[in-house]
Prior knowledge:
Order of helices and strands: HHHHEEHHHHHEEHH
CATH superfamily of the largest domain: Outer membrane efflux proteins (OEP)
CATH class of the largest domain: Mainly Alpha
Strand order of the largest sheet: 1-2-3-4
Shape: elongated
Radius of gyration: 45 Å
Helix content: 55-70%
Strand content: 5-15%
Mean pLDDT: 83
Largest sheet: 4 strands, antiparallel
Number of strands: 4
Number of helices: 11
Number of domains: 2
Amino acid sequence: MRFSCDLPHTVRQARVLPCAPKAGSEPFTAPRDTPASPSRERVAPQAAISCRRSLEARHMRQRNLSPSLLAARRIAPLVGALWLMHGLSACMLASDKVELGVPIIGSYQLAHGNPDAALPKLDWWRGFHSAELTTLMEQAQVGNFDIAAAVARIMQADAQARITGAALLPTVNLDGSAQHSRSSTNTGSGGSGVSGASGGGSPERNLFSTTLNASYEIDFWGKNRAALLAAEQTAVASRYDREVVALTTLVSVANAYFQILASQDRLRIARDNVAAATRILDLVRQRLDAGTASSLDVAQQESLVATQRAAVPPLEITLRQNIATLAVLVGQTPEAFTVRGGSMRRLAIPRVTPGIPSDLLRRRPDFREAEAQLAAATANIANARAQFFPSISLTSASGFQSAALRTLFASGSWQYALAANLAQPIFHGGQLVGQLEQTRGRQDELLQTYRRVVINGFADVERALVDVQQQSLRERLQTEVLRTSRQAFEISETRLREGTIDLITVINTQQTLFQADDTLAQVRLARLLAVVSLFQALGGGWPPLDGDKPRDS
Length: 553
């Protein structure tokens, strides 16, 4: 066997090139069409001898290798390429991640003192010190239909993740069949057109078979892994959605219960106002009988009494409607639901501190839900991109087939088949490109949604903080208004009995008192609702810090 090696025409630019053996080739000679210089004549034979020795040494090494080592050396580049593709498929997902781009401030504008002094507890509603409210919250967590539907959505998302993940595993099926057939005996090729079965055999035939089939798609490009990751992130988002629904439900229960208490307080105030106005009307009528008051004075007071009575029906409507709303929230029918209620004055106002804004990213379930949805969209991009690459699938079938059942599992009845398939998309009319652009657009939409949710969440806390602070101040001021209004009314009523005051002054003090008393009830309700909105803005209750230690500054 001879070897040949072609060198460049210019010896100075010559580099050692891999040379392959060529059977029947001539020993190295310089190209005849190129003038040979003295230097070329000296160097070219030496290079040829060096190349020949290298090829001969390599050939001898290959002859000494075992067949298994030779096979391993041949498939090594293929294995390396496959591992490279496997690693690249994992990098595809990371390249699709986007920067959230949400600025996080160090503290809230209206937060003062230690931000961790009074973080909301997991059972934050107990801070109002209402046993009935606690019972209603527990009933809502068990019987609310929205929460139950959210739990069902979690089950669906988990099942979908299992379905999607099945593509990463092979599918195996076991098939069995038994067939009995009879062929026609009048289809022979003889001249008469009628003949028996071929070879004189029986026209009836049996065929029994059992086969084990397996198929598997090699996920080189991470298509199936990306789809599984998207399904898993969707399942995570469904869990945070359940927390969002639960928090919304609990907040609605608290608000409805406080509305009921406020309606009951305002009804008591309205009835007290009617009684006070009726008492003044009796005094005016007595003065009319004594000749010290006119019919106009009586008519004005009667109008005030009628106005106070007319304020009762709207409050009854609000009370009954909120009871029905609360019944639905706890999963009961309004007909079988009752609320004892009471007064807002018996409730305690829990103290709440908001922590720091960065805590909100981990605490609010709607933030985490939007983040999980964005992660699912990112995984879908990787899946859409992997659709451009070839898909490789392996199939195999192995089993037994025989004409007689007794020989079905004999050694001669065994059969098998192996197949590999590679499919490379060539032209799909822009479908794959459209799918990729669609997933990118979806990712951008969810990114903007996440940013909006986060910014709006920070704004919710700021709005709730200012609402709590100002409603607390308003309640103190309105309490003072009620105190002075009640004092003025009591003085005017006393002087009316003494006959030393005109009725117009009495009517004005009545109206001021009635309005101040009802306004204070509404202010108390607004303060309770503000505290509840702060709990909602903070994402509900927070677990305690690790070891109850202060946060590292």
